[in-house]
């Protein structure tokens, strides 16, 4: 079975008004979307972590805790926690507390992040990008596995017979590794036997198969059972009544957002032709009718050798709240069932 969910960066913009809505209204809308996803039967909702003006997700565990008090069954996760710039002790305490509030529904996806503003913000050297993550992941896993910690490293003071509280309801609380396209990251996740969340927001999904194979091979060599080596796929996507409707509604906000990001990174402006190609059968975007999106999820799953979870990121397209809520309904009521029915009978 493939779990279907949503990831959000708590974007401040909204299609309800040409201007940016207030922060408090944006957070209220986000919580409404999480509650609606729970009611629609989606499996998971993730909140990212950024430290930029256009996003309100600098403290994802706080948002998720608010959502935990309003929901009943949906799993709540980070997407991703920028572990390189965080204290693993506080990360564990935050998500253990979230796990208690949600009665065992908390998870975290940890990674190095695709933006770099957190490094100077927290007084860290970007040159230590990977070393910071590797050391802090080691400490986080030590804390998850042991109530009393004896640990030393390069970037944080040592811990001697230190008890870490609270402990989560889940034992162990799930920790996924969020990755982009670095082979070493896939191998590390496999070696540690941790589930993998692959962010594919451009290009053709099947090109990531060799990296996913590296993950599975590393996990097998380390002695981890195949069922432990879960693979998740994070993609930009949107669902509407028809594919034409979905494409026309999603494109304007998508183009605006990624053209803006492109200026920072030296990319050319987004064109409709590029968007149409990315939303095609082999492209990364999951945009279309419920039937077409379900088929594309199954195509991507086959291309990657099987996936356990797919999460959609929709809010960066600055769509009106009503359209996002409708898309959530279609994901929960149609796409999820179409995917898993077709998976069972294929």
TrEMBL record:
InterPro entries: Bact_Lucif_Oxidored, LLM_Atu2307-like, Luciferase-like_dom, Luciferase-like_sf. Residues 22-299 form the Luciferase-like domain. Keywords: Monooxygenase, Oxidoreductase. The keyword Oxidoreductase applies. It holds the Pfam family Bac_luciferase. It comes from the Bacteria. GO terms for cellular component: cytosol. The keyword Oxidoreductase applies. One of its GO terms (molecular function) is monooxygenase activity. NCBIfam families: LLM_2I7G (TIGR03858). This is Putative LLM family oxidoreductase. It comes from Pedobacter cryoconitis.
């Amino acid at each position: 079975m493939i779990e279907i969910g949503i990831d959000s960066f708590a974007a401040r913009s909204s299609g309800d008004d040409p201007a940016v809505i207030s922060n408090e209204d944006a957070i209220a809308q986000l919580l409404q979307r999480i509650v609606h996803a729970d009611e629609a039967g989606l499996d998971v909702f993730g909140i990212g972590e950024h430290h930029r003006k256009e996003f309100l997700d600098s403290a994802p565990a706080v948002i998720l805790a608010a959502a935990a008090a309003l929901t009943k069954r949906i799993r709540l996760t980070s997407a991703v926690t920028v572990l390189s710039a965080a204290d693993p002790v506080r990360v564990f305490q935050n998500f253990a507390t979230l796990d208690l509030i949600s009665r065992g529904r908390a998870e975290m996806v940890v990674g190095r992040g695709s933006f770099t503003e957190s490094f100077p913000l927290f007084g860290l050297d970007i040159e230590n990008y990977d070393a910071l993550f590797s050391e802090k992941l080691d400490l986080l896993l030590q804390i998850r596995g042991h109530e009393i910690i004896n640990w030393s490293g390069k970037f944080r003071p040592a811990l001697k017979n230190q008890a870490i509280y609270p402990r989560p309801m889940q034992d162990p609380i799930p920790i996924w590794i969020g990755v982009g396209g670095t082979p070493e990251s896939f191998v590390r996740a496999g070696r540690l036997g941790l589930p993998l969340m692959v962010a594919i927001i451009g290009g053709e999904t099947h090109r990531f198969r060799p990296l996913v194979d590296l993950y599975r091979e590393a996990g097998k060599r380390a002695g981890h059972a195949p069922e432990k080596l879960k693979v998740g796929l994070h993609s930009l996507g949107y669902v509407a009544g028809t594919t034409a409707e979905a494409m026309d509604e999603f494109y304007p906000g998508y183009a605006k957002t990624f053209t803006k990001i492109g200026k920072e990174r030296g990319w050319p402006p987004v064109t409709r032709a590029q968007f149409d190609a990315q939303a095609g059968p082999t492209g990364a975007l999951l945009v279309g009718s419920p039937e077409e999106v379900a088929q594309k999820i199954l195509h991507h799953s086959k291309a990657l050798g099987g996936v356990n979870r797919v999460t959609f990121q929709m809010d960066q397209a600055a769509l009106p709240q009503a359209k996002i809520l409708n898309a959530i309904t279609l994901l929960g009521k149609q796409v999820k069932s179409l995917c898993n029915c077709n998976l069972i009978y294929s």
